[in-house]
Design brief:
This protein is mainly alpha-helical and 201 residues long. The protein folds into two domains: 1-116, no CATH class; 123-172, no CATH class. The chain contains five helices and two strands, in the order ααααββα. Strands 1-2 form a two-stranded antiparallel ribbon. The protein is flat and about 90 Å long. The two termini are 43 Å apart. The relative contact order is 0.09.
Length: 201
């Protein structure tokens, strides 16, 4: 963290501008790629999007690219307009917008894109059975089927649990961002070998 706060202003502004530019271009590229990779296979007739690979791996690549690039935009904005700047009402409002955007991204957009990927290209539905636990290993007379729907919800639930914990830890740690470590005051020793203390009334 101190690397960003101790950086010279000129270098920090230049880095912020480049991160903003690369982030915006990356988000546009990732969204473009994920959109066309999600479409059906192109016909034999060549079009200007025929070269994009139609597969769930390709869709995930575009989505992850857009997510990573969005964080470059956030970091660039923080470097340009927040870090090492005096806190004002306008800057506090901008930070609250950044926080809102991050919460919407990690708890709204990403889970939605995961459901779209799992139910679409991956075809994780009730009809896809990945594992069957026989009744011989269970205290019930019925077996258990682990279907695509169950796996999809397990991934979603695990993701939300981890991200909620990470958000709590980050909210706690970020309060110390930019604060300089304070050194303890050295004790003044009297000629008699004892530490001097201030008198109290």
């Amino acid at each position: 963290m101190h690397v960003l706060t101790d950086m010279p202003d000129t270098r920090r502004r230049m880095l912020g501008v480049w991160l903003l530019i690369l982030g915006v271009l990356g988000v546009a590229f990732g969204a473009f790629w994920a959109h066309f990779a999600f479409l059906a296979e192109p016909s034999l007739e060549w079009t200007w999007t025929s070269w994009i690979w139609r597969h769930w791996v390709s869709v995930a690549f575009g989505q992850l690219n857009a997510i990573a690039a969005s964080q470059l935009v956030v970091l660039g904005a923080l470097l340009l307009w927040v870090i090492n700047k005096p806190m004002t009402w306008a800057r506090a409002g901008f930070l609250s917008f950044i926080t809102w955007f991050e919460l919407v991204l990690f708890f709204g957009i990403i889970p939605s894109e995961w459901l779209t990927l799992a139910q679409g290209p991956l075809q994780w539905t009730r009809q896809n059975v990945f594992l069957v636990i026989p009744a011989d290993y269970l205290p019930t007379p019925y077996g258990i089927e682990i279907t695509g729907t169950v796996l999809k919800d397990m991934v979603s639930g695990g993701y939300h649990t981890v991200m909620l914990g990470a958000a709590i830890v980050f909210a706690y740690k970020v309060q110390d961002f930019g604060k300089k470590p304070t050194k303890p005051k050295a004790e003044i020793i009297s000629p008699y070998g004892r530490a001097l203390t201030k008198a109290t009334d």
